[in-house]
Specification:
This protein is of the alpha+beta class and about 60 residues long. Helices cover about 35% and strands about 20% of the residues. It has a two-stranded antiparallel sheet with strand order 1-2.
Length: about 60
């Protein structure tokens, strides 16, 4: 799946940053610069993908 970052701007000027295709905390790292540029964060909704473990991390843990 392609990794994308969507910025949705409502008619009232509120913005929402939505990431797709990221696993775990990678979404936060990828969208951090956009969130800083947009200003103070007022809410956060984490999708199920946030709680998934990437295959690379899983392989490292299994190899230990």
């Amino acid at each position: 799946m392609n990794k994308t970052i969507e910025i949705i701007v409502a008619p009232n000027g509120q913005t929402r940053v939505e990431t797709k295709g990221f696993v775990g905390g990678d979404c936060r790292q990828a969208s951090q610069f956009i969130e800083r540029a947009l200003g103070q964060q007022t809410d956060e909704l984490l999708k199920s993908e946030f709680y998934q473990v990437s295959k690379l991390n899983q392989q490292v843990k299994e190899g230990q």
